[in-house]
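Supplementary Methods S3. Input chains for the assembly prediction are listed below.
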Amino acid sequence: MTNLPLLEPFDDRPTLLIVDDDLTFCEVLSRAMSRRGFNVQCAHTVEQATSLAETCSPEYATIDLRLVGTSGLVLVERLRALDSGTRIVMLTGYASITTAVEAIKLGATHYLAKPVDADEIMSAFERTAGNAEVPISTHPLSVGRLEWEYIQRVLNENNGNISTTARILNMHRRTLQRKLTKSPR
Amino acid sequence: MTNLPLLEPFDDRPTLLIVDDDLTFCEVLSRAMSRRGFNVQCAHTVEQATSLAETCSPEYATIDLRLVGTSGLVLVERLRALDSGTRIVMLTGYASITTAVEAIKLGATHYLAKPVDADEIMSAFERTAGNAEVPISTHPLSVGRLEWEYIQRVLNENNGNISTTARILNMHRRTLQRKLTKSPR
DNA sequence: CACCATGTGCGGCAATTTGCCACATGGTCG
DNA sequence: CGACCATGTGGCAAATTGCCGCACATGGTG
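Predicted structure tokens for the full assembly:
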């Protein structure tokens, strides 16, 4: 599965930056990726990640979309500003089309929904535009899912402002709030 | 067609290629985009679109993901091979994250789930990675309305069969029945 | 023909979701 | 500082839903 030699000297191993506010997740993934030949570093906030990236300039990165404070998306920009060759995989608990589009446009290599395993991340790193054969799903989204995607889109366009989003969507703020706490149906 | 007073002479207007196998959709969108100052051409198959693109080399394009025969994705590659400056918006009835990621990686400017209106497409064309957080013009569709449109489409695709539509949409038949008796919210 | 699978329309009822209120907190702007 | 706004939360009545059952039509099949 891995084409990365396990026996390279430590400093020759490719560097991987894992950014996620879930400490357990970081630790588990970190171990799995170390085993696959990466020199791994973890960060739990955008600030941490930025300063780490400035000193070590990682070749690979996994970034969680939802981080406390700022969105993980800004990190995609920063990492690629530092080194446009950085391969970035976006991870998220609640995948939505809007944020997927956004992440890819900002330069992410791929976008995966949790739970993911290390091998999925590995092949996501390998991925380029041409090489993925995409099964076009024939069956539509459920109404619940459609609503969720739409809400995410509008919310994103309004920079996460719940009140204005609710107003635009012609729904009660309280209702929108409640919907947002639930996972996509 | 007569009230285009302030628009540029016909040949100076930006060219837009609409690719969709739904003829009605093409016609409606074509008219809406003409009114917005585009020189519109329509194609209903990948082949048609390819030969049209080779002769007229459109600056803008909207491409439906699911076309009979080949996927609309290959068209993204072709159009951008002809002119890498072409702005392409991918449209789809069945939005999925995978195809969204793929479309963007192949060079699409944006990816929108139907139903869309012409204004959404307009702002999608304007969109670049940087200006994503610019709040776009007000969203006309309420969630209720979106749901209604979607239900109508799926229902139509299933020849008005309420039971199968309810199954596909993952909602109770009784609920769907009741929703159908009401007018779009 | 009877039999069966399937789709449809509708009534009733409990469970869930909603709309709408109030109140507290924290941030920004003048 | 006060005015304003977005957010988080709880409570409660009203609306919607999920799910039951039943009657009826249709179409295929032994």
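The interface with chain A takes residues 65-66, 71, 73, 93-102, 104-107, 110-111, 113, 128-129, 132-133, 135-136, 138-139, 141-144, 146-147, 150-151, 154, 168-171 of chain B (CB under 8 Å). Helices of chain B lie at 23-35, 46-56, 73-82, 97-105, 118-126, 143-157, 162-168, 173-181.
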